[in-house]
Amino acid sequence: MRAEILSVGTELLLGDILNTNAQYISRELANLGINVYYQTVVGDNPERLKNAYNFALSRADIVITTGGLGPTKDDLTKEIAAEYFNKKLILDNKSLEEILTFFKKINREVSENNRKQAYFPEGCIILKNNNGTAPGCIIEENNKIAILLPGPPKEMVPMLNEGVIPYLKKFQDGTLISKVLRITGIGESSVDNLIGYIIDRQTNPTVAPYAKDNEVTLRLTAKANSEEDAYKLIVPVEKEIRDKLGDINVYGVENESVEEIVAKLLIENKLTIATAESCTGGLLAGKLINYPGVSSVFLEGVVTYSNIAKINRLKVKEDTLNKFGAVSSECAAEMAEGIAKAASTNIGVSTTGIAGPGGGTDEKPVGLVYAGIYINGVVKTKQLNLVGNRQKIRDRAVASTLDWLRRELIAYLNKDSN
C-alpha cells in the first residue's frame, strides 16, 4: 500500500515548529511495509487544505494527517475531510463526555469551541485521545483511507501506536520484521564498497542504509508467514554483513548508542572512569551520564579549560605545555592519567583541541583534537582531524572518543580474559 503524510499547520511552514511527526509516522509505516512516497505540509487555509487532500488521495491509498483538530476556527482538518468524502459531521456523545471529564480534571471551563472537537464524519472510526482534548478518526471510503491525528507529538504518538498501528496491521500480507544494525568507525562510502553487492541483490530481506551524524545504520527487513520465519531470513544476511564490515564496527542494534555500550562494559566489568575535558567542555561526561546506573562506575568529570586548571587539577607538567602546547598528544596523555589518579579510577579519558572558529594555525588548524585514554597504567592518545562549525567539531570529538574508548575497552577485556 502507498501512504502520504499531510502535516497541517501554518506554524510548520513558518519554521516555528519542527515536524517530528512526519519522521515518526514514516518510520512506523516502513515497519509495516507501507511505502511513503510523499510528505506534504500545508497551512491552515481551507482551499489549500482541500487541494492537498485531492493531490494526496489521487496518488496514495492512505493519507495520514497531523494537526488541525483543535478548537479554534482555523482548525479545519476534520471539516475539510468530511467535505471531501461528502459526509456529515455528527456529535459523538462519548467523545463529548471524555472532553468534559478532561476539563473537569484540570479545573477549567469548557468553551463552545471545544465541543466541536466531539463532532466527526458519519461512519468513521473514532480514535480516543488519552493525552488531550482532540480525538482522531479514520475515514474509509471508495478504497481510500484518511487517518486524522492531532498535531502535538505527546498526543499523536500514543494515538498512532495504540489505535492506528493495530488498525493498519490488518492490511499486512504476512509478517514484517525489521532489525537495525548501527555502524561506526567507517563511513557511508566504505560501507557501500564493502557490502554494496548485498544491497544490490536484496530481495527478502531488504537492506536499507541510512547515513547519520558519526554513524551509518542498516535496516534489515524480512517478510514471512511468522515472526520466527522472518527472523530466520535476517540471520544469514546479518552474519554476512558483520563478516564484511567487521564485528567491531557494528557496535549495536536497534536504538543502542555508543555511550550505552561503553557504560554497560564499564558496569559489567566494574571498571571505574573519570573524564577530563578541554575543548568538549563536559559533553563527553554528559554522554556517559545519559545511561541510567552509570553512577556506580562514573566517579568524576572535570572541565580543565585553562592551562592553570590542567596544571593544578590534573598535574599536567608546565614543561609539557611550554614545549608541546595544550593541544598535543603529550598533554592529552597527561590529562588522562592525571584525572584517573586524581579520582582513583581504573580509566581516565581526556580531550583537548581547537574547536574554532578562530585560534587555529597552519601547524594546528581548527578541528585538530587529541584524545587520551588511560586504562590501569597504560596510556594511549589519538589525533582527530575534524571539520564543521564549533559545535559540530565538539560533537564529533566526543563521538570519536567514545567509539575509540569502546574499542579499547573491548581489546583490554579480551586481553585480560586470555
TrEMBL record:
SUPFAM superfamilies linked to this entry: CinA-like (SSF142433), Molybdenum cofactor biosynthesis proteins (SSF53218)
Domain of life per record: Bacteria
Membrane-crossing segments per the record: none
Stretches assigned to the MoaB/Mog domain: 4-170
Pfam families in the cross-refs: CinA, CinA_KH, MoCF_biosynth
Family statement: Belongs to the CinA family.
Name under which the protein is recorded: Putative competence-damage inducible protein
Native source organism of the sequence: Clostridium pasteurianum BC1
Gene name for this UniProt entry: cinA
